[in-house]
Amino acid sequence: MRLNDPSLLRVDSYVDGNWLAGKRRFAVTNPATGEVIANVADLGPAEVTAAIDAAVTAQREWSKRTAKDRAMIMRMWYDLVMANAEDLAVILTTEMGKPLAEAKGEVAYGASFIDWFAEEARRVCGDVLETPQADKRLLTLKQPIGVFGAITPWNFPIAMITRKVAPGIAAGCACVLKPAEQTPLSALALAELAERAGLPSGVMNIVTGMNAPAIGQTLCDDNRIRKMTFTGSTEVGRILMRQSAGSVKKMSLELGGNAPLLVFDDADLDKAVTGAMMSKFRNAGQTCVCANRIFVQDKIYDAFAKQLAEATKALQVGNGLTEGVEQGPIIDNQGLAKIERHVEDAIGKGANLLTGGKPHALGGTFFEPTVLTEMTSDMQLFREETFGPVAALFKFSDEEDAIAMANDSEFGLAAYLFTENAARLFRVSEALEFGIVAVNTGIFSSEVGPFGGLKNSGLGREGSKYGIDEFLEIKFVCVGI
Ligand code: ADP
Hints:
Elements: E1 13-15, E2 18-20, E3 24-29, E4 36-42, H1 45-64, H2 67-83, H3 85-96, H4 100-121, E5 127-129, E6 136-144, E7 147-151, H5 159-170, E8 174-178, H6 184-197, E9 204-206, H7 212-221, E10 225-231, H8 234-244, E11 250-254, E12 259-263, H9 269-281, E13 291-297, H10 298-313, H11 333-348, E14 352-355, E15 370-373, H12 380-383, E16 390-396, H13 399-407, E17 411-412, E18 414-418, H14 422-431, E19 436-439, E20 454-455, E21 458-459, E22 472-480
Parallel strand pairs: 7-8, 7-10, 8-9, 10-11, 12-13, 12-18, 13-16, 15-16, 18-19
Antiparallel strand pairs: 1-2, 3-4, 5-6, 6-22, 11-21, 14-15, 17-20
Helix pairs in contact: 1-7, 2-4, 2-6, 3-4, 3-6, 4-5, 7-8, 9-10
The structure holds adenosine-5'-diphosphate.
């Protein structure tokens, strides 16, 4: 890996301000080439408990600092992340596969949470309440929840960390974070930069390891961890919630999605195709907000399908580090197998293949950008998130039917709709049972908008002015005078 600053490539865990080698190592591979890039510390429960000890001690001091003091360190961290954006993007693409341009976008997006929550730290305010009794005075204090555990996925190796850690440390909490085993190097590079920024030892601990269930259990079982924040599958989210029941932890869960994208007859066709391409093929379809089910109204259906297929055929597939590549590899063989299963199932049940549909000639885990039409609700893709570059088109004629089909899912994270009719825009946005509705655009994420889902897509909101509340307790103080 060619980096301007090779010392950003850390391979040991970061616990209490020390780089911890652990007793074992595990291999991290480049999904574009299959090559081993690094052998990373493989920690077990005893080391995770030591990290919790460090976080508990560090949090006492950290929470006593002024918000401005915490914000200044965070601002320095932000500056360092941006100054090292090139290297961070190379590390990210090498371990995860997404095109370098997307990786650079993720670094800036990830950094924006550090900047934003450094500012929000200074705007945490309690209240003085109007008293119902003349001899009492009533106040609320907002205080950090304490030490939190965080578990993050591989598809956004930087942004999913900063979106959790930044509001937490801004609020005066400390954390023990386990990054995905596929992408620990981005997490460790972030820790290196946090250390350079002056973040005190123990405030952010990064524990790497292969045995995710054991690490997760250790975090959930520990009474001193007062909150768990997780992004990943609904299945693992449920496990963490169950395991956290014993110590009644506060939970933030960003789980699976099955995003519908609705294109109405009155949509601007070019805008709809561009939006669908961005939503569907970003990160090779491996995001929890990628359009999974594309519902198109009958009059515009054929034109939309033709234009989408042309744009899909033009996508450049290859190693994310190669200039001009727009779609990298799928993260691993398991991910690839699910995509193949969904496509085979759909074709077997009558779907029509407009382009793609099979593993790419490049081999490995590359998959052809694919468009399927004539999709129906009995196909696996309708119920399950494909997490791959497969655009699946369903036809509808009636607005109410489209809304009913879109809502016919256990998930409720993001939905998209394309229409130029203002009344429909409001009517459909209100009817969709999703935490996020994007209208006439395929991209909505920023540090300013609240990100989170309904139903089995999770609990809580990340980013935005609401994000810091997830890490604060409200204490009521009643003073007799
Ligand atoms: P994905 O299928 O996208 O990899 P997962 O939910 O399996 O999603 O993984 C998200 C994160 O959860 C990763 O960091 C992974 O190591 C971790 N993880 C997986 N299984 C467990 C578990 N039983 N307990 C705690 N963490 C887990």
